């Protein structure tokens, strides 16, 4: 009798929630989707129990969220750390978590967006190579959200080029951020060197005057002025502005690009929605 | 017949609105109050017509607001430039206005708060000496707002020590900011050197999670970490947070002070209200 064919080692993805809590029912749906797309145990998706904790606004206290993040990041058995969802809270962990990352953390992939951008930025500032802005498990709550989650898995498991934002190329440095999150890390230890990068920005549930103010802030930073250019993703569910702001999001970005001398390269296919594509930090 | 007694030169105060529009009826009330308190033409209060312009969200287009600010700032006949009101828009002028300031601008007093903090910060970064955080003409709209406006005039005209926030002393360096405004100028050309300063912060109409995030940002900046300490003014009209943030504003500030090693010195008597006291930038 021949030896059984050796199974390829499964891709092990750990999920942590450094910001807001994930609904366990959503985690089950994501696990089912992963099992259906990658049958035979080819993908092991492990939701850290911390994802489902509650402490006020957050998925558990700062210490619990930091510990869960470090457990997954520093465990060499995991290939990737996937941010469960955004909300708010990642920045509260950053100064504790970043100095405790071990070599196993550097070897790992990271995927998330929105509030997760605080930690992605800090990891990039530390020289981590496998970071990307893209869908999270919580996106399955959106109508048609399975497509976003499948895209994230295709990136994490297969490095599927179809998951990528269309302007991402082999030689162009890129990075992507939520506008408000990037604004709130400028001038801190979380700010990475983005010289020569094409920066893609997206936003949701903000008033236009806030987007304008954040883009003043971002484009007035001397580090950001060394970027190769800016692309604008989708700004969704804009909140009312009183008085009416008049300018739309693309007029705002082109205004600040012109003022700051940063080239504007057009739109990017990212945002708080199911079409949100993957944007790696750095080159592919 | 004896010569008439020489009249002292009047204090001339120019008002500009680099952010949102001022209601002309409020300007009339402020002028009447100034005339009543300083009779015989001892104070000349000049509202630049730009204060009453409208362009979308703003008191006129960027160019009109910048021109009015420069007209008053660079005119040696004015002793002070008083910011008409906050809202949003000062940061949009900063990079155009600051390089065009002439020696007459440096000799002048400036008073305002909230959105005006963007320009006050930029002026302080340029080495201007007579800047203060305090009430504006628009404060007359508040119930009992005459007290705030009278306090501002007492500072601008008489340098009345009773106008000052109680912890302001002759030798302590101080500065005061709206939390969101300070956050949005960190890491830009507007950020002044605040080494050794007691920093006083206030906020209005924000959600607690935003205040927490902005205080992460502020206290994580290496320049701010050189401050002597932080005092917390009032955080008024806090908007609902979903889920409930649990922590109050003083718990948030003490959290971030402890994390960052910046001493917390207690409360400050400033805020978006009629009790808002004057805080000079630098020493008295």
SSE order and pairing:
2 copies of one chain form a homodimer.
Chain A (H helix, E strand, L loop, with lengths): L10 E6 L7 H14 L5 E5 L14 H12 L6 E4 L7 H7 L5 H4 L2 E4 L4 H9 L5 E3 L11 H14 L15 E5 H5 L14 E7 L3 H12 L9 E8 L12 H12 L3 E4 L11 E2 L4
Parallel strand pairs in A: 1-2, 1-3, 3-4, 4-5, 6-7, 7-8, 8-9
Antiparallel strand pairs in A: 5-10
Strand content of chain A: 15-25%
**Major sheet description of chain A:** 6 strands, mixed
The residue fraction in helices of chain A comes out at 25-40%
- Rg of chain A is 19 Å
Per DSSP E runs of 2 or more residues, the count of β-strands of chain A stands at 10
Provide the residue-averaged pLDDT of chain A: 96
Number of helices of chain A: 9
H and E string of chain A? EHEHEHHEHEHEHEHEHEE
Quaternary organisation of the protein chains: homodimer
Largest interface: A-B, 33 and 32 residues
* Helix/strand/pairing category of chain A: alpha/beta
- The main sheet of chain A orders its strands as 2-1-3-4-5-10
* Beginning-to-end CA distance, first to last residue of chain A: 44 Å
Give the overall silhouette of chain A: globular
Q: Unreliable stretches of chain A, pLDDT < 50, 5 or more residues?
A: none
Q: Could you give a short description of this structure?
A:
2 copies of one chain form a homodimer. By secondary structure, chain A is of the alpha/beta class.
